[in-house]
Amino acid sequence: MFSCISTLFFAAIAANLAVATGNPPVTTTVTVTAPPTTVTEPASQCNTGPIQCCNSVDKAGSSAVTPLLGLLGVVIQDLNVLVGVTCSPITVIGAGGGSCSAHPVCCENNNFKGLIAIGCVPVSL
Question: What is the residue range of the signal peptide feature (predicted)?
Fold first, then answer.
């Protein structure tokens, strides 16, 4: 239920930003290849930036993620790629900080200010 509410909330924010700025929408094409199977990797193997803690993680083609991608103007060619929604970086792992009560993931593209992260693989902390 929370993920549906947060998805609608962020969709409304994105729509308001698009209207408020008056700029034409920009489409961003992201090419990411999904791994053959979804496996959990150790956090130490993440070399694409900080581990992300996302409220939800789903395939790009899912009914929860597709509307967000559309509002952001993001086109993902492989709809099986995992996308994290409402993510924040985990900066310290192992020293008592850096915990995640939702979905810890390592993502290839974290350039959407925490709204989404693309090309995610679950990690074990």
Answer: 1-22
